[in-house]
Amino acid sequence: MAFQSVDQYIAAQPEASRSALEQVRRAILTAVPAAEENISYNMPAYTLDGAALLYFSGWKTHYSLYPAGADLLGAFRQELAAYRVVNSTIRFPLSAPVPVKLIARIAKFRAAHPSAKRRASAAAPEKRQRRKPNK
User: pTM of the full predicted structure?
Assistant: First the structure.
């Protein structure tokens, strides 16, 4: 199924994971109110200034938060020690309470440490005027 909205994505998940996914969603949007919510790679995605901020997805026994680069993993090493981290994916078990404050801090960290794409767009002029072709 190709999801059209985050609401549709969450509604399609098993009942046991919906509450956790809603909490993850609220944590991200509360922490970074300027983030835009959409679907990308058929999962909930959040962008800021046109660049990827965070994604999340639900699974049978856990939910995941992406991407977790080396800088993020280093900054949150102690807090993430209790969770399974594989490559750039943080896995949170559905059997434990949602670490809302940690997820909010991760979202704020990602927003404060922009990707190369966001850095480049921030350095670019506000708007370039389009040249009209010579006729």
Answer: 0.82
- Number of domains into which the chain is organized: 1
Give pLDDT, residue 113: 84
Q: Is 18 exposed, middle or buried (0-12, 13-18, 19+ CB in 10 A)?
A: middle
**Is 22 a residue whose pLDDT tops 80?**
yes
HSE-up (13 A, CA, CB side) for residue 133: 1
For position 52, which CATH number holds? 3.90.1150.200
Strands (E), the chain: 36-40, 43-48, 51-58, 62-66, 84-86, 89-93
In angstroms, the CA 41 to CA 39 distance is 7
Residue 38 within a domain: yes
Q: Do the Cβ atoms of 43 and 55 come closer than 8 Å? A: yes
Say how many Å lie between the first and final Cα of the chain, rounded.
48
d(CA 40, CA 66): 12
